[in-house]
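INFO  loader      accepted 1 record
INFO  loader      residues=280
INFO  predictor   begin
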Amino acid sequence: MELHKIFAASVVSVYVMLAGGCHNVMYTASQGLSGLSAAAEAESRKLASSGLQETAAGQEYRGAARGANVWDSIISDFRLGNGQRAQVIHHKNIMRTTAHGMNALLGRSSPYIKTIYGEIRERGLPAELVLVPLFESGFKVESKSHMGAVGFWQMTPITARHFGLRVTKYNDERRDVRRSTDAALDLLAYLNKKFDGDWLLTLAAYNCGITRVTNAVKRNKAAGLPTDFWHLNLPRETKNYVPRILALASIMKDSGSYGIRIPNVIDHPVRPERNVITAK
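INFO  predictor   done
INFO  writer      dumping tokens
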């Protein structure tokens, strides 16, 4: 859908100022799973304690079955790079020690990843965006933060409604995989346009809000400093959020060296009954 048909630009600006409100977990090395959101970390630990970290729901892994693996297409489509940045290497080293939990989360993604990647590829967006729900919610549609953010993409009610989702007591489309993905990608596309195609600034704004990132860029510009993501003064969570996504993308290109097992997803569509969770 085209954004100008959803709402006026002024309304978008008001909304996006609030977009970072649902990302509130500060990163510390002691969190273990490289600073996942509270929802994602809880889901990873739940899967791991249930013995599902290796074969979530009977999941096979790359090389275990014949045919094209959706993840192979995703990985070959990664294009944001920066794998050798010091900040990214830092998170890659942490993820090497927490592969157990990361494998659990990747296994959880299997019923949905084909749908999410299909939407991303159709729009011509970076494949790295498939990793955003991993760090937001651990690929758990029922996930809810204490700020009221819900679903894979951890969208607040105001976020969801402004991007065309229904959020009622009986029908919360933030838990609908296709609809919430469409709305989240609309938001990401809007942010990317605002930042002249810079995807690192886009991801930063998705995390902490467009106002903070815009103000940080303006401060650096006024001081004669570089205005790329790596030189901005942003919240610590955001400074770690973007490198985490880049780190996992880089690791997945060399998964064996990091103990990461790539799920083998051949043709595993989302089951309709899991798309929408009706509130009781």
